[in-house]
Design goal:
Blueprint (H helix, E strand, L loop, with lengths): L5 H15 L1 H11 L26 E2 L5 E2 L3 E9 L7 H17 L8 E6 L1 H4 L25 E2 L4 E7 L2 H11 L5 E2 L2 E2 L8 E10 L4 H4 L47 E10 L2 H5 L3 H8 L2 H5 L18 H5 L1 H8 L4 H6 L12 E2 L2 E3 L6 E8 L2 H12 L21 E11 L18
Parallel strand pairs: 5-14
Antiparallel strand pairs: 1-2, 3-6, 3-9, 4-6, 7-8, 10-13, 10-14, 11-13, 12-13
Helix pairs in contact: 1-2, 1-5, 2-5
Bound molecules: protoporphyrin IX containing FE.
Protoporphyrin IX containing FE binds next to β10, α12, β13 and α13.
């Protein structure tokens, strides 16, 4: 699709609208889209028990890899009171969320979302969280980062292929409009919560190329049209992702929950694109063996449902450092991303952003314990490999030269039955 056609400008306006938000943007969206957004359910108990059960509700590509919704919004929320939430707070939040459930089909075609809670939220209560819930405060995860810590009470993550549905839902939640997909919203989420920080993003073929005129990306439009991400490759192959079952806390008061780490990374891709050839990028993203053997074509669709990071490639990381003078991002991270039985530990759901006109990445990752994420991030740091002469902390060390951590936050995504302001003992009094 070339710029200037009606279709191109419609898509462009939708993306701009999600980025900008606000009532003007919404009316622009509604004018431009005539397909109805599919409705939700009259009985919310028919919805999945886990808030993080998204995979069966989304689309798949030809190799059965899950495709994340194209437009996404993260609302970092602060509870508008000191101390513990009241029954009124819980009723307001429940009312707002169940309105969304009735208004929009829970899918990429309607709206999919989850509400998660931070350690700071749980510290409002006297009781501690159960021992099997591993939810520490966020902290620095590498010696070379100075992130801001997101310690707001809650994180609402909204996602849809429909930019208009996403914006309308957000405006209904924040009290800027009375209806969501023609369902009246009696009590908005803003009756209990304030939005402290609003972050937006997107993922999917075409969008990074269209949005590449931002800080962090060289001026000659290097992002391939078909790439779902700014760095020019696809990610999230089915066999390199944990299952939703695997990342679920299996027992205790929060059975059915998962933990969510969300970082925001700024990308600076000048040297990624300008100084390097395609094979260099393959070596640094996947592994030097991937480049040597020509395993990746284009954005990597040819890989099917597996990135090709084999146990042999994982074990050869030090040898690769010596032989090729660099190591791959996926190869390094994979060292800690398998349990003793070979299961993958993290379920990554990251997407791009042009907030503040900078190329960045929102990186939500789901795992049973936050510690699991921290261990994989440590493996990705590759600090242990810097005793090899060619490998420096940020050079020849996967993609660390091009990404800069701006924010980190940790959250618990409770199961649906505990999604409304739960206590640390797994109750929702007053509902
Ligand atoms: C701009 C930032 C990033 C980009 C573009 C990116 C891209 C990729 C790509 C293309 C792969 C190989 C395909 C796949 O398995 O999905 C991969 C693998 C992976 N990445 Fe990243 N990634 C980024 C940041 C991160 C961060 C911050 C982490 C945090 C720990 C991470 C963890 C992983 C893991 C665990 C794997 C899978 C390795 C395996 O077990 O097979 N990535 N990434």
């Amino acid at each position: 699709m070339s710029p200037g056609t009606d279709e191109w400008s419609r898509r462009d306006v939708l993306k701009a609208a999600v980025a900008v938000g606000g009532a003007g943007a919404l009316s622009a969206c509604l004018d431009l889209t005539d397909e109805p957004v599919p409705e939700g359910v009259s009985d919310p108990s028919t919805l999945p028990a886990r808030q993080h059960a998204w995979d069966d509700l989304l689309t798949r590509d030809g190799a059965e890899n899950v495709e994340l919704p194209r437009h996404q919004t993260l609302l970092y929320l602060t509870l508008d009171r000191e101390g513990t939430p009241t029954s009124d707070d819980r009723r307001a939040v429940e009312e707002a969320l169940s309105t969304l459930d009735r208004a929009y089909e829970r899918s990429n075609r309607g709206l999919i979302y989850s509400l998660a809670y931070s350690p700071a939220y749980f510290s409002r209560f006297v009781d501690p969280l159960p021992e099997n819930v591993d939810l520490p405060e966020p902290r620095r995860l590498s010696p070379f980062e100075t992130p801001e810590f997101d310690r707001q009470d809650a994180l609402l993550h909204l996602a849809s292929d429909r930019a208009d549905a996403l914006i309308e839902a957000e405006e209904a939640l924040t009290g800027e409009r009375d209806t969501a997909n023609e369902v009246t919203i009696e009590t908005p989420l803003s009756a209990a919560f304030s939005v402290d920080s609003r972050r937006t993003g997107f993922i999917g073929k075409g969008m990074p190329a269209e949005k590449q005129d931002v800080a962090g990306i060289p001026d000659d439009d290097p992002v391939p049209e078909e790439s779902p991400l700014f760095m020019g490759f696809k990610a999230g192959f089915a066999k390199n992702q944990a299952s939703e079952e695997y990342v679920t806390i299996p027992d205790g008061p929060f059975a059915g929950a998962t933990t969510k780490h969300v970082s925001k990374l700024r990308q600076r891709l000048d040297d990624w694109y300008v100084e390097q050839e395609f094979d260099d990028r393959v070596a640094e993203m996947f592994s030097p063996a991937h480049a040597e053997r020509g395993l990746v074509e284009g954005i990597g669709d040819n890989l099917g449902d597996d990135s090709g990071v084999t146990p042999e490639i994982i074990e050869s990381v030090r040898e690769h450092a010596q032989q090729y003078g660099r190591v791959g991002h996926a190869q390094k991270a994979a060292r800690a991303n398998r349990d003793d039985e070979g299961n993958v530990r993290l379920l990554r759901r990251h997407f791009e952003s042009t907030d503040e006109n900078e190329a960045s990445l929102h990186f939500p990752s789901l795992q049973r314990r936050i510690t699991d994420f921290e261990e994989v991030r440590e493996a990705m740091n590759g600090t242990d490999l810097t005793d090899e002469p060619a490998i420096r902390q940020r050079v020849n060390n996967g993609i660390l030269e091009y990404i800069f951590v701006k924010n980190r936050g940790n959250f618990l995504v409770p199961p649906r039955r505990l999604r409304v302001l739960p206590t640390p003992t797994g109750e929702v009094p007053g509902l």
